[in-house]
Specification:
Length: about 325
């Protein structure tokens, strides 16, 4: 029997988590994510088909991939997403299928996504104020998102994480209101530091979350905790164990040494780092009819270029990279 291939990068880190972007398009225009007037989206005919996605994920799973998160752009704008989820769920070796969404279409789709086998959802929500929501996202859709969250809870999503990107002077005064909202509903709040990715990511004021963490720790008597998931968040939990807050701090305390993630863009480019250059055009290889063994060798070989750490704030920060295109 051939020994199992391991997804090891050039620094010896084991890769077991794929963030799979199913579209780079989004029905929101969050100021920190997509630059104003951005039009350079991938033509849908260049998106990987569900068959192609299944093939790549199947190969990676044979080599040790365990977790897949569907993301984008906004994944719920890709038609047939539940069908894709159902297909991925059947791939041997994958033990975790999750979804990141902005929640605008969750009310319509939560039931079918749950039935398709998606276990966990993360919903982006930066504010509970309708005017601010419009200012941040460019759309009047807060009520849709809040309704979507209620419907998702009713549909059986018991582990819901709320991702709040904290922006200086925009929503950093709303953290306590968000703690209250999440605690009342049993959602897990995750506070995220802005990443200066491209023009959009650099356009908002970064907030160092370390002092915020200390303040919340003291105010609510929080202690170190842990929550299921494959990501980089560090959690604090209330003494009764009923409320968790996660902190994702790529700048004030980066977590690259334990990074277990790779990303596949909608058009099939493999990224080994969120801030990095695409390291392999998987879509082109598939469409050129590359044989299974060669594709596997290309995938595992591409991991060698995974950088030691991100370069946010470094010389490439000004380049026009777009989070929605890479699959945040
Ligand atoms: N549309 C989905 C959503 O809203 O969750 C998935 C894609 S979105 C790009 C994934 C996550 O990236 C969201 O939580 C979003 O807030 C975050 N994000 C986008 N740009 C960011 C930036 N510059 N800094 C920090 N987080 C960012």
């Amino acid at each position: 029997m051939t020994p199992p291939i391991k997804l090891l990068d050039g620094c010896g880190r084991t890769v077991e988590y794929l963030r799979l972007s199913v579209t780079d398009r989004c029905d929101l225009r969050c100021t920190y994510c997509i630059p104003p007037g951005f039009k350079n989206f991938v033509t849908p005919s260049n998106w990987l088909t569900f068959d192609e996605i299944e093939r790549v994920v199947g190969l990676l799973a044979r080599a040790g991939l365990k977790k897949v998160r569907l993301t984008g752009g906004e994944p719920l704008t890709r038609p047939g997403l539940s069908d894709l989820a159902r297909r991925l769920r059947l791939i041997p070796g994958l033990d975790d299928l999750s979804l990141s969404t902005n929640g605008t279409r969750l009310a319509d789709l939560a039931g079918s996504l749950r039935q398709a086998g998606i276990a966990r959802i993360n919903v982006s929500l930066d504010t509970l104020d309708a005017g601010r929501f419009r200012q941040i996202t460019g759309r009047d859709a807060l009520a849709n998102v809040l309704n979507g969250l209620d419907v998702a809870s009713e549909a059986g999503f018991t582990l819901v994480k709320i991702n709040m990107v904290v922006m200086g002077g925009i929503n950093d005064d709303e953290i306590d209101a968000m703690v209250k909202y999440c605690a009342e509903r049993g959602f897990i709040l995750r506070l995220i530091e802005t990443m200066p990715l491209g023009k959009a990511g650099s356009s908002v004021r970064h907030v160092n979350l370390q002092p915020v963490k200390q303040r919340l720790q003291q105010r609510y008597g929080l202690i170190d905790g842990a929550v299921p998931g494959g990501g980089p968040a560090k959690y604090l939990v209330s003494p009764d164990g009923r409320f968790n807050i996660g902190f994702i701090t790529p700048l004030s305390q980066h977590f690259c040494a334990s990074c277990n993630r790779i990303r596949l863009s909608a058009d099939g480019k493999l990224y080994t780092c969120l801030d990095g250059q695409a390291s392999l055009d998987v879509g082109a290889l598939i469409r050129a009819g590359t044989a299974e063994a060669d594709l596997m060798a290309a995938l595992t070989g591409a991991l060698q270029s995974k950088p030691v750490r991100h370069d946010f704030g470094g010389p490439r920060s000004g380049e026009n990279r777009v989070m929605a295109a890479i699959g945040g």
